[in-house]
TrEMBL record:
Source organism: Sinocyclocheilus grahami
Transmembrane regions listed in the UniProt entry: 46-66, 78-103, 128-149, 170-190, 221-246, 282-302
Subcellular location as annotated: Cell membrane
Membrane topology: Multi-pass membrane protein
Keyword Ligase: no
The G-protein coupled receptors family 1 profile domain, residue ranges: 57-340
Keywords recorded for this protein, A-Z: Cell membrane, Disulfide bond, G-protein coupled receptor, Glycoprotein, Membrane, Phosphoprotein, Receptor, Transducer, Transmembrane, Transmembrane helix
Entries under Pfam families matching the protein: 7tm_1
Protein's UniProt name: Thromboxane A2 receptor
GO BP annotations, alphabetical order: adenylate cyclase-activating G protein-coupled receptor signaling pathway; inflammatory response; positive regulation of cytosolic calcium ion concentration
């Protein structure tokens, strides 16, 4: 999805009253005007770089999660790792598939460089492109929300978590998420709504800025509303989980009895470290998703609301804002894997060792003394 948006490629305007044009006339541009952008083709260096970076980042993060899943497949972390792996797989597939489709349109525009008229992409191709955009846009948002709910149950109700969040139910949840995204993305393929080429003619999506039908407006509203709801659920769930962790940390510090420290201290601290690691990763994913996706989803919601109110704005201004918001949303697939690459316990431990070496050494020596004492008591 990344190389859709690295450069806009202006084209010559066509005098037509039809709103189903593949290109949109920029401000103060006429048919006989010559733009420098028409002389030189767009640069693809950044597109190739971001597409390669995103693919390698997702593959690296998937390898890390696969190694972690092999270690924790029978523990409480397994459902979280399974959902996280599904999220990265959807990011990788969306990154590669939509990027390849967009690159094809870019190359087509270069091929028709300097022509008086640039043909719009085939209708079937645009429908396929638009359905991929909707499907791979919704799946990561829904999976991120499911991860947040799973962690909220695991932290707030640790005794109930193994009975409620089973691997079978997690897999069923993943199938339900896939089915929901497929239904919304596939409706225009069944002639319920439509996908249209979007400015600057290098991607296809549900019509938002042009004269649209009630069905198109309803689908766009469903997409933006569902996306915003998933982000809200993620934020609320992570907030509850974070407050619960802080409360548990405060209670642990208030306990001064040596007997309470001896009984179950190792297992509790181990579970607590796992919770902190997963919550750190989940909070980072939520922040990245909110920053990247909120402008695009909110813009669609406002645009469709104004459509129902009968309000119109100049299309060039709207299309540029939509393109800018989508460029930001495309970086979500690149930044997600770096959360798992950087926010691991091994990396965080090394960072803490660099920042506070005395504290880390003290913690290690104290844990060694405790284990040594246990061995002596056993003998």
């Amino acid at each position: 999805m990344d190389n859709l948006f690295t450069s806009s490629f202006p084209v010559k305007c066509q005098n037509s009253r039809d709103y189903n044009l593949t290109t949109v006339c920029p401000d103060n541009q006429t048919l006989n005007s010559t733009s420098p952008a028409l002389v030189n083709p767009p640069a693809f260096g950044m597109s190739y770089f971001t597409m390669t970076l995103g693919a390698l980042s997702n593959l690296t993060a998937l390898a890390i999660l696969a190694h972690s899943y092999a270690r924790f497949r029978r523990r409480a972390k397994a459902p979280f790792l399974l959902l996280a792996s599904a999220l990265l797989l959807s990011d990788l597939a969306g990154h590669v598939i939509t990027g390849a489709l967009a690159l094809h349109l870019h190359l087509g525009r270069v091929k028709h460089h300097g022509a008086a008229a640039i043909m719009e992409p085939p209708h079937v191709y645009c429908k396929l492109f638009g359905s991929c955009m909707v499907f791979f846009g919704l799946c990561p948002l829904l999976l991120g929300s499911a991860m947040a709910v799973e962690r909220c149950i695991g932290i707030t109700q640790p005794l109930l978590h193994p009975a409620v969040v089973t691997m079978t139910r997690v897999r069923l949840t993943m199938l339900l998420i896939t089915f929901m995204a497929l239904i919304l993305a596939g409706l225009p393929l069944l002639n319920v709504g439509n996908y249209k080429p979007q400015f600057p003619g290098t991607w296809c999506f549900l019509p938002v800025n042009s004269l649209i039908s009630i069905t198109d407006a309803s689908l766009s509203l469903a997409f933006s509303t569902l996306g915003l709801v998933t982000l809200t659920v993620s934020v609320v769930s992570n907030t509850i989980s974070g407050l619960k962790l802080f409360q548990a940390r405060f209670k642990d510090r208030s306990v001064k009895s040596s007997a309470a420290r001896r009984h179950g201290s190792f297992s509790a601290s181990s579970l607590h470290s796992l919770d902190v690691e997963m919550m750190t990763q989940l909070a980072a994913i939520t922040v990245v998703s909110c920053v990247c996706w909120s402008p695009f989803l909110i813009y669609i919601l406002i645009s469709v609301s104004r459509f129902y109110e009968g309000i119109r704005r100049p299309r060039p201004q709207c299309e540029k804002l939509l393109l800018l918001a989508l460029r930001l949303a495309s970086w979500n697939q690149i930044l997600d894997p770096w959360v798992y690459i950087l926010l691991r316990r091994a990396v965080l431990r090394r960072l803490l060792q660099l920042l506070q070496p005395d504290r880390v050494l003290f913690t290690q020596s104290s844990s060694y003394r405790d284990s040594h004492r246990k061995q002596i008591s056993l003998h």
